[in-house]
Every structure is written in C-alpha cells, then in structure tokens.
Amino acid sequence: MRYYQLKKEIKKDRRDLVVANLLELKKAIKKTVPKKSLDKNLLIATWNIRDFDSNKFKHGPRLNESYFYIAQIVSEFDLIAVQEVNKNLRALNKLMYLLGNKWDYITTDITTGKSGNQERMTFIYDTRRVSFKNVAGEVVLPKTSLIKGDIQFARTPFIVSFQSGWTKFSLCTVHIYFGADSGVKLERRKAEIEGIAKFLKKKADGDKETLMVLGDFNIVDHKHETMEALLDNGFEIPFQIRDKPVGTNTFQTKYYDQIGIRSKSGFFQLGEEDNSAGTFNFYNHVIRENQFEDYKYEVLKTLNKQLKNKEKSLINEQNRKVTRIENINKLKESITDLKEMLVDDDRLRDYYFKVWKTFQISDHLPMWVEIKVDHSEAYLKSL
C-alpha cells in the first residue's frame, strides 16, 4: 500500500488517529485471516462496499481516511469481488492507487434500469498472486430460463476466469435483487438466486471446472428459503461459515453475503483450518462506537449539508406555480427533525453509529474463503 499518501491526504493533526486505526486494523486482520503463503494458498473475498461512491443518499462524502481503511482491508486478501461500485470510477481508481501498482481490476459497465441502480460488478486482484485468464462475461439467461418467465437479473452477474498456482477457477459475482421481506418481491429474490444457481451448476458440470459464486445474495437467514435455493443446486458452503453462520451486515443480524463452490476438478481444495473462511468485523477496530468524539465534527458537517439542501428544496417547492402541500409538509418535518438532531448528542451518536459510518466504509462486512493452490503432489501421484 502507498502509506506515504497519508502525508499528502491526511492533515497532521489528524494523522495520529488514522495511523492508530490502520495499525489496529492490520493487527486484527492478522489474527483473524490466514497468512498468505506464496504458491500455497489464495484468499478470495466478497465485499459490498456501500454506494462506492456516488453519495446519492447525502450521508457522505467519504473522508480521505476512509479510503485508507478500505484499502487496508482489501489488501489483506488476494482476489476480491466488490459490489455497488458506481458509474463514476473515481472512488475505485483512488482505491487502486492506494493499493499500489501490483494490483489490478476488471469491471462491468453499469446495469441500467431502476433495479440496476447504475451499479458495476468488479473484481480487484493482486497480480503477484493471481492472474486473469482473459475470459470474462456477464450472465444473460436464455429465453427458456428467464426469471418468472420474462425477466433477466436486476443487476447482471459477472463471471471471470482466474488462475493461481496450479488452480484454475471461475468466479461469478452477484448482487441479487432485494425488493422486500415478503410477498411478490421476496419471491423474485428467491427466483434470482435459484436462476443463477441453476445456470452456474449447468456450466460447472458441463465445463468440468471449478466455479465459485459469491456476493450479496440478500439471503434472509442461513435456514431461509433464499439460502435453500443455493444449496439445492449443489453449491458447497465452506464449513467454517456453514456450521457457524455469522451475519454479514453491520450489526451481524442478517446473512446477506455468501460464498458457494461447485467443483468437478480433482485438484481443488478448500482450506481446512477454522479461519480458512469467515467474516471480518472491521467496526471493532476502526470508526468504533467509542470514537464518536473523533468524528463528531464530520457528522455535524454532513447533517448541516442535509439541512441546507432540505431548506433549499422547501423554497423551490414553495415557489412552484402549483405547490404540493404534501411535499411541503414532509420537507418542513424533515427540517425540524434535522435541527433537533443537531443539538441532541444522543441522537447524533445514534446517527453516527447506525448510519454515518456505514457510508464511510460499508454496511456489509467482507467474507472470505481460503483455497489451496499447490496440487503438485496430488498431480504427481495421479501419474
């Protein structure tokens, strides 16, 4: 990582805090994630980095220091599937610069339409540890397999071939439609998971390759129908996250993110240690609940921007030739609420802890799996 950028991008009176946070992150990840071993293992992760980085929800923008925290987390893995990369690649390119020139990425164009949210699917990888095998494509279902008979995926899955050591594999990253927790929209969510699982099962079996699907599945619970749609199609979940499931949202109450493997290769092996797969909660180590005072100024700045925007919108609404009373009342309520929050430390802390920080790093936690990439002994014995 280009740590020297700290001198350029972080003010001197702030630098001690940022350096301390980075050191805490490094120490915690070292204790949690397997050590990288050249030609022996590969660490593959999935991470939904929230709204990276349009600030359309007005809870940002991200601070410069937040990019360092994101880069530190990403750098601890070898190959990362990232969801919610936005149309503007400024944030992604900034992250790549911090990671250094040995890192590269491959990304899709945006998925258009309301459900697509103008998101990209992206893989970031360390070129010293893994190589792109020049095959990539977005998953488009054939007419006979369309979801609910006539629908493609809300956000197009992205499948790419890689190699590390002896191991060749394809990764498919997804960001499944969320919709709602019940009714027709939940049914569509389940249908999308089942649709991608069936498609990839057929591909893996037909090509006799190792195929991993990973990303934000918006799975409700590890025993829910949304999870069954993945399991029923023969995808193996690493036992470390299957037997002791841990939530992947900020408060670890939801099981949105997942990694599934289907392999027909005789030379594919998952890591067998307790930490060979898991979820890393970075909020135990950076932008913590007890660091509110360190970020209070930025929280106030964000809310004051929101207030200013609401007041401007109210003036515009009141000056319309045909005013909409319902909109005016909503804006007035929102302005009153923001003014009250700005002078209430308890509410500020709550906003900092539950909302603001998730737009600095993410509302999802990264999930990883370790694979073994040295199969030379097994190959020699097979001869």
Quick gist of this model?
The chain has 383 residues and is an alpha+beta fold. 38% of the residues lie in helices and 21% in strands. The longest helix is centred in the C-terminal third of the chain and has 27 residues, at 292-318.
Overall description:
By secondary structure, the chain is α+β, with helices and mostly antiparallel strands. The protein has two domains: 5-287 and 363-382, Deoxyribonuclease I, Chain A (4-Layer Sandwich), CATH 3.60.10.10; 289-357, no CATH class. Helices cover 38% and strands 21% of the residues. The chain has eleven helices and twelve strands. It has helices at 5-9, 12-32, 64-75, 90-99, 183-207, 225-231, 239-242, 292-318, 325-342, 345-354, 376-382, and strands at 41-52, 79-86, 103-107, 119-126, 131-138, 158-164, 167-175, 210-216, 257-263, 269-270, 277-279, 367-372. Strands 1, 2, 3, 4, 10, 11 and 12 form a seven-stranded mixed β-sheet that branches. The protein has a five-stranded mixed β-sheet with strand order 5-6-7-8-9, with helices on one face. Strand 7, helix 5 (183-207) and strand 8 (210-216) form a beta-alpha-beta unit. Helix 2 (12-32) packs parallel to helix 3, helix 3 crosses helix 4 (90-99) and helix 5 packs parallel to helix 6 (225-231). The longest helix has 27 residues, at 292-318. It starts with a helix and ends with a helix. The model has no long low-confidence stretch (mean pLDDT 94).
